[in-house]
Amino acid sequence: MKAVATAIAAMGGSRSCATAWPFTVEDIEITQDDVLVTRTPKAGMVVASEGAVVVGLETALTPELVAEGRARELVSHVQAKRKELDLDVTQRITLRLALAPEQAAELEPYRDYIAAETLATTIANDLADGGDEVDLNGYAARFAIEA
Asked: Is pTM, for the whole model, over 0.70?
């Protein structure tokens, strides 16, 4: 049996199930029904399979994805506040933020996105006090809307 296990392990992913079966090791014929294939995903991957189709999804969060998530979270909070203030859907606003320098730097690449989604003509990180306190996926922040 060790010879069979060694032969199967040596196949790796190189042996095509459609064309390489059955095969013989030490006068023992091995068919597809004799082999159970299990898939173990790599760290940071989620894998699903159905039949011969396998899909892998990388779940690791890059700094860019985390920053984009925070930008989207800010937009969500601003949109909720716009609704609470009963602003017209086309009304332009000034968005004032209170962010730590590293937070502001992280969100800077998404400034145009934030402005477009919230209809902000100005976005300034100059909110001294007041405003709504929000959690941007782990960052505490404050914002205020001027209509």
From this structure: no
